[in-house]
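Backbone Fold Data
Goal — fold tokens
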Amino acid sequence: MNLFVLLNIALLIIVITFLYFLKTKHVKFSNRVFIALGLGILLGIGLQFAYGVESDAITETMPWYNIVGNGYVRLLQMIAMPLVFISILAAFTKVTFGKNLGKTAAVILSVLIGTTAIAAGLGIASTVAFDLDATQIMQGEAEIARGESLVERSAEVTTLPEQILTMFPANPFADLTGSRATSTIGVVIFAAFLGFSYLTLRRKEEETAANVKKGVEAIYGLIMGVVRIILRLTPYGVAAIMARTVATSDLGAIMDLGKFILASYVALIAMFLLHLVIVALTGLSPLTYVKKSAEVLLFAFTSRSSAGALPLNIQTQTKRLGVPDGVANFAGSFGLSIGQNGCAGVYPAMLAVMIAPTVGINPLSPGFIATLILIVAISSFGVAGVGGGATFAAIIVLSAMDLPIALAGILISVEPLIDMGRTALNVSGSMVSGVVSSRVTNELDTDVYNEPADKAQLVQ
């Protein structure tokens, strides 16, 4: 390890120490997260300016930064499955949740899939408005290699019935380890079966059911204690992740593909604004939604992991937006694999419209657009909520539209930058589905939703 690497590590330690100092001074959690974002960006810019993206100093430094950044994300992923399982099971101890389960699930799925179809339309509109065409973008060795790997991965793509079938848990204990892309849905289904079993037990054996309820509540309290411990690490994780992202971003590639990046974020922002319109249509304040969801959306943006953001997502819905535990867990869990607005909606639609002209297809024909939106909506089932989910969604859509998959590799150099916005939009979509579902079933606690954001801190 050379002197420069030691210096870079020391800089991160200084940033972490400063953030801890702010904690001792009782600076609000939300403020510390935003300060961490800013410090991470400044540190990343400084490292790139001092060494360059492909320097040995950067290459040797990033694994140490990943201990803090990726380590934090892994801790969140560690607790995500147990949290989903025990929260849904605990929710069945409330009679109202059991009664409204069917309606709740239907509304959540409708919002997730419906908004994904709309997101596809916005992706198409943005691509046309910016006149994007895959033939205009030069391909280097990395892009060609990425294209070849996508062609190989296309062999893994399954039909829609097979995708739906993978959601059912053959081995729920394996799903608790996150062994499959749809493991979260499998855990939800398993927990729901146990919940219905509890409701039956309560009618027949009240004493046994009472013991089960006490046990579930005890485990729930234990898991939530772990969640609170991990969430306290958020500022440090955000700072490390952001420093790594900025330090390793290829500014030259960003400049070359700036038009596509801009078009992508126009579509993503437009879809987020539509989320706010949906919230407003339920009679709630969209500004309150923005204020209270900012922390989790920021983390999703920096981490690029919907699964990693799940604990923050659920905590935000229950503590700040007034969504019941069971509904929040269903919305957050389904949102990991179904109807991701950014990864499964905007991105595949943009690629399809860009690639269509290369094979002589008019992307503006009504038939092509209608077919594309329908395929995007249907294929949004089973998209993994981790890095690479957008690629999988793109493969499915391009294959179904009979478009060349290899050309999707042209965007490899700016994938991380775009994926940040896509992930934040995915998480927002799942939270909106939870809010809307709770509102429709009259389970939303409007007092919690409307109280000032300062009174509903995720972490003290």
Notes: The mean pLDDT is 84. The CA atoms of residues 93 and 372 lie 43 Å apart. The radius of gyration is 22 Å.
